[in-house]
Amino acid sequence: MEAQSAWSTPLGVWIGAIGTLALFSLIYRENRLYRLFEHLFIGLAAGFLIKTTWHETLHPQWWKPMTQNGQWPWMFALAGGALFYTIYSKRYSWLSRISIGVLIGFVAGQIFQVTANDYIPQIRKTFKPLYVTSADIPTGSMMTVQGMMLNNLIFVTIVVCVLSYFFFSFEQKNKVIRTSARSGRLMLMFAFGAIFGSTVMARMALLIDRVWFLMHNWLRLQ
Length: 222
Prior knowledge:
Structural class: mainly alpha
Number of domains: 3
Strand content: under 5%
Radius of gyration: 28 Å
Helix content: over 70%
Oligomer: single chain
């Protein structure tokens, strides 16, 4: 709340307005004012990241347990982290590979865990039954048996068409496979269009927020 009230002062509003206009000046052409505020933004972001890393990660999860709770083995983490900086030494750069290898191993394990927990259930749910009975309809659902069967049929058809588009093991000479692949490409275009549209909407929301700030907080227009 204190930071928010500080930026609500006239000085904070003017700094925000000048920074916003400086970044918007890129729309006209690249200039020194834009470069200045771009570097300021990156510098502030880097400083904020360092502060957040210390206060939310290193201090409560590493420094405090090591110095106050007697968990002294955490000091070896400092040695492992220091090995990353040996990459700047031609003589001892090979030591950095130890920490990099351990880090990549941990990340690979986490990615495998995320894949197993998130994507495999999604793959399993793509196998939908084309024949549905009333027992397969969730309790409280307003969908009928015919509606569920039609929904599953459309879903399976889209999945098969999209997969056939990425099937490059042999040349797609068969008319059925070729038609299915073309349909899959069309469905992919619909999906990518929806994703792109949502991205544009998110950017427009940011633009509207900045324009609102300039008009109401800075220029005091009602």
